[in-house]
Amino acid sequence: MTSSSPAAGQIVIRDCHTLDEFRACVALQQEVWQYEDADLVPAKMFVVADKVGGQIIGAYEGDTLVGYAFSVPGTRAGHSYLHSHMLAVRESYRNSGLGRRLKLAQREDALKRGFELIEWTFDPLEIKNAHLNIFRLGVVVRRYSINHYGYSSSVLHRGLPTDRLVAEWWLKSNRVKNLLEKGREPSFPVNKKISVPAEIYAWRNSESDREKAAAVQKRNREEFFEAFSQGLAVLGYERDSHGNGSFLLGRWDENCSYASEENDE
User: Fold this and answer.
1) Per residue in 31-73, pLDDT tens?
2) Which of 246, 231, 114, 233 is nearest to 175 (CA)?
C-alpha cells in the first residue's frame, strides 16, 4: 500500500514489515508518549502483530518515520475485527491531516482483507482526538471503560485514571461510506450532549488545577454510563469558537454489532 501527497510534504504511507522499521516505531512511541520502558510496546510485539494478521502502517518522509498506526486482530461473538492499539504522529507533523491519512490507510487495508470493523480506545478528555474519530472518520461509541490501561507512566496522562471510550468504526456502514466516500455528514436527532471544556489541557498540566480535570472526568464518566444504559450512542461531535468540545448522542439506526458477554463495560 503506497500513497503520497505533495501537500503533505511528500509523505509516503506504506506497510512496515522489517525489524528495523518496528524499532523505529518503538522509538517514535517513546517520543510521543514518553513512557517508562516497562510501558513500551516492544519491537517483538510488532513482529507478532505482523505475522498474525495485524497492521503496522508507517508514514515516511524520505527514510524517516514520522507516524504509524498499529493494529492487532481480535474476535468477538464469532466475528473477526481489528483493534487499533496505537496511532502515533511526531509532534511537528500534527494538525496536518496525517493522522486521518493513516486511519484511512487502515480502512483500505482492512476492507481488502475482509474486515468490517476496526475498534480502538481514546481518551474522552482529548478534544482533538474525539473530533477526528467521530466527526472526521464517522466512528460510533457505545462503551466506556474505566481506567482501561491502569495508571500510566506517560506524562500525557498526568496521574489521572486512563478512562477510555471505545470507538467502533464500521467500515461498510452507510454512516461511514456516506461520510468518507460522498462527503455527507450524518444527520440525527440529538438526545444528549456531554461537554469537555477547552481548559481541560491546562488543568491536566497544572498540579493545582488537576482536581478540576478529575472532576470533569468523573462527571462525564457518569453521564456516559447513564446514556449508554439508555441505548444512546455517540454519533456526532462539535467544537465551539472557544475550543470547547461536545459529544452528541442519539440513537443509531444501523444494525451493526458484534455484541457478546465479553464486551467492555
Assistant:
1) 999 888 888 999 999 999 999 999 999 999 999 999 999 999 9
2) 233
